[in-house]
Amino acid sequence: MIVLGIESSCDETGVALYAAEGGLLAHALYSQVELHARFGGVVPELASRDHVRKLLPLIDQVIDSSGINKADISGVAYTAGPGLVGALLVGATTGRSLAWTWGVPAVAVHHMEGHLLAPMLEADPPEFPFLALLVSGGHTLLVSVAGVGDYQVLGDSVDDAVGEAFDKTASLLGLSYPGGPALAALAVKGDPARYRFPRPMTDRPGLDFSFSGLKTFALNTWRDSAQTDTERADIARAFEDAVVDTMVIKCRRALQQTGLSTLVIAGGVGANVRLRERLGELMSAQGGRVCYPRPEFCTDNGAMIAYAGYRRLQAGQHEGLSIKAIPRWSLEDLQAV
Ligand code: KG4
Ligand code: ZN
């Protein structure tokens, strides 16, 4: 079985081919970051139009580079949600139509399931059950994972997602969009003892997250400071330390609550080095294991969608002829495999 995977939920066009024998055959990504940078965030209509321009050439490129023929493809997986509806519709329409043309099944993939299963593309993949910390531009989720499609959401963000908080804080410090990686790079130069930011919602029980207050805290600290490069780096450091600390506290709590001993970190913020280090320390102190995808598969990509689709198609799941685009969609609504 060879599955073509298509990702177009936000500002990245991703395409990949995953094979039952051979694993990941080829993948390619086109990022729209430059297109949206001058607006300081993703402009949905521009995103949709750019997916239209880039998707088919990217599919051709991936098939060519894999060395297989179109006729060898036995299924198509596309991101059906959550995400921007116009952007989703491009991948969904293209994926469903190609599947129809080729006479193969199509499967609608949940974007966060893609992130959650991405570590399975690596050597020594995690085994079920595990706890997943999904941290992206749109989500902050703690999920108890019993198997593919068998998810219980233990914690969610009550306001800004963690990636969004990184991006907004970066922006107020004058860093360009998307600011997460730039803020993390700046934080390395910051003095950890200069400022201490709160660790939101850690002083009460529960596993939910709230990061919008931290962004305001950063804004006020920046306004009251001398606004030098040193201050900027110190604030970046204080912000990152607070976010990472908060996530470590919540993960420790969730592990205690569930008795799980494997932790998966996925989603764009999962590329954050400090977060990986701290969660690695937590898991080794507890005698457990931490697994994450390589950094390029932390952020949006087609490989994770091809893989998630492969797992569902292999289990006999697929859609009818309808084109599915579901902008808001809970992981808990998925069918178990
Ligand atoms: O998963 P993703 O590519 O897209 C969504 O599904 O949202 O995540 C993108 C988010 C952005 O907010 C970006 O700033 C953040 O991940 N990000 C980071 C890092 N790399 C990407 N945040 C903190 N540190 C990083 N190294
Ligand atoms: Zn994502």
Walk me through this protein's architecture.
With 337 residues, this protein is of the alpha/beta class. It folds into two domains: 2-117 and 297-333, ATPase, nucleotide binding domain (Nucleotidyltransferase, domain 5, 2-Layer Sandwich); 128-292, Nucleotidyltransferase, domain 5 (2-Layer Sandwich), CATH 3.30.420. It is built from ten helices and ten strands. The strands form two sheets. The chain has a five-stranded mixed beta sheet, sandwiched between helices. Strands 8-7-6-9-10 form a five-stranded mixed beta sheet, sandwiched between helices. Helix 8 runs parallel beside helix 9 (273-285). The mean pLDDT is 97. The structure holds 5'-O-[(R)-(carboxyoxy)(hydroxy)phosphoryl]adenosine (KG4) and zinc ion (ZN). 5'-O-[(R)-(carboxyoxy)(hydroxy)phosphoryl]adenosine is lined by residues 10, 136-138, 163, 166-167, 178, 180-181, 184, 267-269, 271-272, 299-300.
Provide tags for this entry:
alpha/beta, 337 residues, 5-stranded mixed sheet, binds 5'-O-[(R)-(carboxyoxy)(hydroxy)phosphoryl]adenosine, globular, Nucleotidyltransferase, domain 5, binds zinc ion
Output the CATH topology of the largest domain.
Answer: Nucleotidyltransferase, domain 5
Q: What amount of the residues lies in strands?
A: 15-25%
**Helix amount, in percent?**
40-55%
**Category by helix and strand content:** alpha/beta
Ligand types: 5'-O-[(R)-(carboxyoxy)(hydroxy)phosphoryl]adenosine, zinc ion
Q: What's the number of structural domains? A: 2
Instruction: Please tally the β strands and state the result.
Output: 10
Main sheet attributes: strand count, strand direction, barrel closure: 5 strands, mixed
Rg over CA atoms, rounded to whole Å, is 20 Å
List the strand order in the largest sheet: 3-2-1-4-5
**Number of distinct helices:** 10
Going by CATH, the architecture of the largest domain would be 2-Layer Sandwich
Catalogue the unreliable spans: none
Instruction: Provide the residue-averaged pLDDT.
Output: 97
- Shape type: globular
CATH superfamily descriptor of the largest domain? ATPase, nucleotide binding domain
Distance between the termini: 17 Å
Order of helices and strands: EEEHHEHEHEEEHHHHEHEH
**CATH C-level class of the largest domain:** Alpha Beta
